[in-house]
Amino acid sequence: MKYIETLHEGDRISDIYLCKFRQAATTKNGKPYDNLIIQDKTGVLDAKIWDPNSSGIDEFDILDYIEVFGDVTSFQGALQVNIKRIRKAGEGEYNPSDYFPVSSKNIDVMYQEIMVYVNNIKNTYLSQLTKSFFEDNSFEKKFKAHSAAKSVHHGFIGGLLEHTLGVVNLCNYYANAYPVLNRDLLITAALFHDVGKLKEISEFPSNDYTDDGQLLGHIIIGVEILGERIRCIEGFPACLALELKHCIIAHHGELAYGSPKKPALAEALALNLADNTDAKIQTITELFNAAGDNQDWLGYNRLFESNMRKTSI
Amino acid sequence: MKYIETLHEGDRISDIYLCKFRQAATTKNGKPYDNLIIQDKTGVLDAKIWDPNSSGIDEFDILDYIEVFGDVTSFQGALQVNIKRIRKAGEGEYNPSDYFPVSSKNIDVMYQEIMVYVNNIKNTYLSQLTKSFFEDNSFEKKFKAHSAAKSVHHGFIGGLLEHTLGVVNLCNYYANAYPVLNRDLLITAALFHDVGKLKEISEFPSNDYTDDGQLLGHIIIGVEILGERIRCIEGFPACLALELKHCIIAHHGELAYGSPKKPALAEALALNLADNTDAKIQTITELFNAAGDNQDWLGYNRLFESNMRKTSI
Amino acid sequence: MKYIETLHEGDRISDIYLCKFRQAATTKNGKPYDNLIIQDKTGVLDAKIWDPNSSGIDEFDILDYIEVFGDVTSFQGALQVNIKRIRKAGEGEYNPSDYFPVSSKNIDVMYQEIMVYVNNIKNTYLSQLTKSFFEDNSFEKKFKAHSAAKSVHHGFIGGLLEHTLGVVNLCNYYANAYPVLNRDLLITAALFHDVGKLKEISEFPSNDYTDDGQLLGHIIIGVEILGERIRCIEGFPACLALELKHCIIAHHGELAYGSPKKPALAEALALNLADNTDAKIQTITELFNAAGDNQDWLGYNRLFESNMRKTSI
Amino acid sequence: MKYIETLHEGDRISDIYLCKFRQAATTKNGKPYDNLIIQDKTGVLDAKIWDPNSSGIDEFDILDYIEVFGDVTSFQGALQVNIKRIRKAGEGEYNPSDYFPVSSKNIDVMYQEIMVYVNNIKNTYLSQLTKSFFEDNSFEKKFKAHSAAKSVHHGFIGGLLEHTLGVVNLCNYYANAYPVLNRDLLITAALFHDVGKLKEISEFPSNDYTDDGQLLGHIIIGVEILGERIRCIEGFPACLALELKHCIIAHHGELAYGSPKKPALAEALALNLADNTDAKIQTITELFNAAGDNQDWLGYNRLFESNMRKTSI
Amino acid sequence: MKYIETLHEGDRISDIYLCKFRQAATTKNGKPYDNLIIQDKTGVLDAKIWDPNSSGIDEFDILDYIEVFGDVTSFQGALQVNIKRIRKAGEGEYNPSDYFPVSSKNIDVMYQEIMVYVNNIKNTYLSQLTKSFFEDNSFEKKFKAHSAAKSVHHGFIGGLLEHTLGVVNLCNYYANAYPVLNRDLLITAALFHDVGKLKEISEFPSNDYTDDGQLLGHIIIGVEILGERIRCIEGFPACLALELKHCIIAHHGELAYGSPKKPALAEALALNLADNTDAKIQTITELFNAAGDNQDWLGYNRLFESNMRKTSI
Amino acid sequence: MKYIETLHEGDRISDIYLCKFRQAATTKNGKPYDNLIIQDKTGVLDAKIWDPNSSGIDEFDILDYIEVFGDVTSFQGALQVNIKRIRKAGEGEYNPSDYFPVSSKNIDVMYQEIMVYVNNIKNTYLSQLTKSFFEDNSFEKKFKAHSAAKSVHHGFIGGLLEHTLGVVNLCNYYANAYPVLNRDLLITAALFHDVGKLKEISEFPSNDYTDDGQLLGHIIIGVEILGERIRCIEGFPACLALELKHCIIAHHGELAYGSPKKPALAEALALNLADNTDAKIQTITELFNAAGDNQDWLGYNRLFESNMRKTSI
């Protein structure tokens, strides 16, 4: 397909894109037309349907994949597509990962790395619990496709997996370096710390907060998901269940960040540190990636409360 | 029974008290003895077992109910019991409410008032849910006996019930006065808002934080209790379940107070206001009750961040 | 009269509206004209005087009531009035409540409910004080017409009355439910808690902060108003005057919200809770009213620090 | 008189001291006696009346001036007086400034410096207002004797005068250096900024918060005092009254410090800066004076949130 | 020269201005042109080069001084210059102080006042240190030309000098009024408190944060500048050096304002008070100057967290 | 030597201990004696010199190492030494690490691990800089012996080395896992991040804050130490020096924690995360070590703002 960032004035396109936005409008002389924004993973583009009632324009909605036939023009210095025909594409005609930002790492390889951790958990109850999720195919499929955020860091396909692996890796390092930590509990908590995001944020293409997300948030959802499964594992020690859930609810580290309890266990503290570390360094990575070749000061960044720039060496 | 606040020097006692504290000690000349604190709802009293190995001294532990035989003496201006014999009392020989602070209101009457609200819920799912708890005898027994706190406000037998009724009453007033509020959702949320305290704080006599309380807190516990029961009610609307749980998790009103979400629904906001109102006015009531006849300034109060005093009229 | 929300392209109007805005401008070819915004309680409308020096255009200012003769046209999709003639209207020709948002409740009925409270105050000094204000006709007239805010909650005609009654009603409920509270002091304080707004915010049509409001604020103004009147009531106990004034100055509850003292009396605390409750629930009511049929998430709300939505049941 | 800091074991005293504390007690063998603390400006001393019912012991209360006859002994390394006789002293027999900390500066000279400022105010209304207070003898007497605090800075006789003069001097400097400031308004506001302390804190010997102080605070009291007087000055411009009162209420600078408004005028800002400057430097002066010859680190100081020490040069 | 604020439609200009902004653009019909903003100390003006490739248009960059030949026209109500020719001006052809805001006070006189303080320092080490800077010609030149800020207060030529003098004057007043302060240390610290700004902010015309400024800030830079010089002064007491540096690093008063230590010495506290006082009063002075004749409320000011207005008298 | 924790009543000692405390006192009957506290790494012990003027008692001061001859007795249930003779020990007679808490890890091995990092720095300037310190014998000796704190975490001999290595190890992990980070800069910054503690805290035995520490703090001291050395390295790039210093000053992460700048470079952010991680996990390790076998809740911990307990598995 012709990616949006490669288009030039004068190109003719007939490819499938995601319809990100659509709104009916009227020209100054009263003629109706449609404003569209079409999207693929390389960017977005304004488009116009000047004859929305034409028979060549199929019915379609925002977030549908649509085959677009049209000409690329330039208006006030920006590219624009004049659309002649639109056809709603069927599932299978397109690959969603062409239309959304996606992890720069190999998703299957990352999942295999996750599975190595899962398979090394020695505590029989934690082992059963983690396998019951990560060996489940439908869970694997959803976990691989999910983002870890609407925007901010890891807001792309595979983002939840990449962030989870980053946190698990850090926790594994901590468990090696600091004997105070129980490896099995810490790795298990890290694997599940953001599992609630599967229900907090809807799948692509919308990738937006759900009612569950708005009303409960991924911390509470995660505890519910784990609690339900734990009840199915015979003999799961009550105290261990409490400690695992505590790590989940305390992983934001501060009440002000939405954790209803501060860390009260060493593993809860360590998980919070790992989550914070991976999130912050990924955020700065995305910030610098977005800056491209710009070696200069990037302006005040609200998240870091500082003007940021790339290092000179 | 002879209540502690009525004892005088020279009295002989042979009554059942709660053993609040026990510690072995040694006199200056090396003789072992035991320091005790015994308690009933009117106060506490120091006691000594000068001959702990005597056959008259049964085995017993802290928080046991013990029948105490001894003489009331005076030491350095304070009363003290010299214990001759101790017998561990059996269940049924004593009434726990004689040994702990207890609500000044009639517990059965309060529960009946709660049931009027339960029976007036019109939404079939919320009605089933509330009845499944409040019509259950073992739940009723526990709910009536529980406190709402280790210390602070409502830290007495019947305290959870009294506070819950206070909040439900306020919510009922709000629902009458402000049409924006849905009565059924608000009353149900108020009935359950502190239900997690049944597991956060252990029953009397210990009335202390449990592992569940320390690691999860009553907000998360409450959501788990409701979630488990809701799954058993066929057809319970998913969105209604979310909204009810949201009211529970948001009822502290601020992230800094342990709510993982701020109120996002009118009923969640109203519940937070009612909880805060009943808690604050009860706290000042207990403060002024404790002050007795003192009409003067009571000194800086950390909770209210102010020096407080009773009003002159 | 023809309300603004009912106008259509092609209508001819000859009605009285409020002039909300007026500014002289020049067309591209150098001709002077006037931009106006006219207002009634249903909305606002752009208007143009293309010939401002015409003899048909009377002299008038911003916030004058003006009779407008003109034609409704459409420009860039929005309605606009081309004004032919303007006449400044005299008092009596219009009813201000047609031009501003107004309480949805019956103002006279609300005032009668206030008077029931006033007449039930038993303390002779507080009774004299409240009657000296609320039985005064000119006070009644101003109190009925005032808003309780420039914007935010209760920012409409009758808003001060409606909010005061809401707070008094809550305080009456508290006085019944919590014996620690002195009813007379609490009701009196509630009646006067925002009386300073009569001078903090100017009357409609401007409904804006005055110099008094900017420099002192309604809390200090309220204390001055009460202090002046109390000096005229022989034998008014000094301590009671202090306690009443304290309730007024502490009713915002926190120094950060402009109260120079935190509540130090039970009634001051209760008044703060009532004020906060009525204000918050009214704010959410106005938010949801403004959302109309929108059952969806309304976006992040700065005041509630949350995304809000209406409840599903 | 024999000052307390000069007493030694074996001295016999027969001098007038202030009774700071008195409490009845009982010896181990049941004999009643009285514990006293007596005070003069150099310190405090424990004292015992071993025979409180003796005819030599007059009736007296805490904060009375008492003539004490007794012997200085040593108990557990500290001095103590065994009192034989006590006589309540009459007014005129003692000079209160012998019994309380007192300004190290000449009080009369400071008042004369204040009067120079008063006499230089050019605005006729502000001039009338300041003279109506500072030329009044009874006001002068109270103003000279008052402290500016119960403890913290300037908590001594003449403290209110010394602090007021310090602030006025700074404001005078500001008015010279920064033309944006109106001298008359600023000097007047500085003269009156803490006038409310005359009623917030009771006179020596008690020097403690009054009901007025607890319930209203010196900011509100100050505004009331000025408002009452302004009403007596014919033609006092309303706007000038507002501006003066604003300076008073905003002089703490932050809502969190009890100002119901932040400074909105240049003079209000300047007054806040002057008040803060004089208070902070005086506090550090008192801290270093109390440290005597100690050139070392004095330990963490809560007010300055720092470990403090004297400078080496 | 013809200052920008004096230009009218129809004027022809041929004067030197600073080029503040330049960007290439294209007309609707594809013709390239340049957008410029030119600046002098009286304001800024839009300008267009319609024929950027003309031989009359010299090469030049942003922040160059350029001689502009063109005609003043009016576009959409605003003035604009159509530029015919541009010539880059050489150093000496223009006076930078014509192009930037400049202190309203006499810079040479202010420096002389600084020198009086320098010459009165009695401590031999502090005297050597201050003279080594302020008697140095190249330092003097830079110090006189520098601003004290990019924007906010004293953001003009001579601003660093004016602010430093303001702070030194205040410190001199403090040293007279409060004996706890050591004059030599305080005056020296005041003279150098913002010396780091010479490297934190680049010189005019850019007057912007440097890498040093972004990465270290003027507090750290100032300590480095002093430390380097102190090492060259034989026998400079180590403790005195520490105390001077402490005053520099603590002069913002709060960790939250970028001081790594809170004031621990009386002089550090006094310097913080002086810095804060001069900065705040200057800020309000600039605010009111910018308001011109406007005697009305100026709207909410974020720095002062208040709506501000000029005083009525 | 006989360690303090192994002593029993009746033992006779003649060993070298550290004198932690000494104070002259007087018995009830007026005889002078000395109170001492003696210390080794296993604990502290009260001691008395009943005859301080005896010829057997050498001159010595607090923090001297003293050979103590005496008998262990028991007083009120606690051990105590009655000292007969004291001799001040000479350097070489004792090993300081017997008298203070010391890292549980091998100090020489840790230093070798540090040196591996030092030797792997590729950037020539950073390599020269790190080697100039870590290859210096006197620096090595001091660095190995220093603590990283007066109390809190790593407050023992070797603590600065252990903490530095912990942080460097984490940074090394980050540099492997996150390509956005420059390894050389990050490792160098980690090696030096707390180098200022060498002057902020005095060496054992006192291990207390110095004047440098109180007035400047280890962040500023560290920057000075690095700056001085960098000036000696020819050609050290100015920008690299800034970036390294920035990492040092920003490593506390927040202004409120004493960093005068928030992290503006990825490496500064990473260093802050590593420092925080090692400090927090070490703190919890020390907390749990101090708790010994206690598996129960340890009570509210101010640093973690939570009640803490060891994990059950």
Automatic annotation (TrEMBL), chains A, B, C, D, E, F:
<dbReference type="InterPro" id="IPR006674">
    <property type="entry name" value="HD_domain"/>
</dbReference>
<keyword id="KW-0378">Hydrolase</keyword>
<dbReference type="InterPro" id="IPR012340">
    <property type="entry name" value="NA-bd_OB-fold"/>
</dbReference>
<protein>
    <submittedName>
        <fullName>3'-5' exoribonuclease</fullName>
    </submittedName>
</protein>
<dbReference type="Pfam" id="PF01966">
    <property type="entry name" value="HD"/>
</dbReference>
<feature type="domain" description="HD">
    <location>
        <begin position="160"/>
        <end position="280"/>
    </location>
</feature>
<dbReference type="InterPro" id="IPR003607">
    <property type="entry name" value="HD/PDEase_dom"/>
</dbReference>
<dbReference type="GO" id="GO:0031125">
    <property type="term" value="P:rRNA 3'-end processing"/>
</dbReference>
<dbReference type="GO" id="GO:0016787">
    <property type="term" value="F:hydrolase activity"/>
</dbReference>
<dbReference type="InterPro" id="IPR050798">
    <property type="entry name" value="YhaM_exoribonuc/phosphodiest"/>
</dbReference>
<dbReference type="InterPro" id="IPR006675">
    <property type="entry name" value="HDIG_dom"/>
</dbReference>
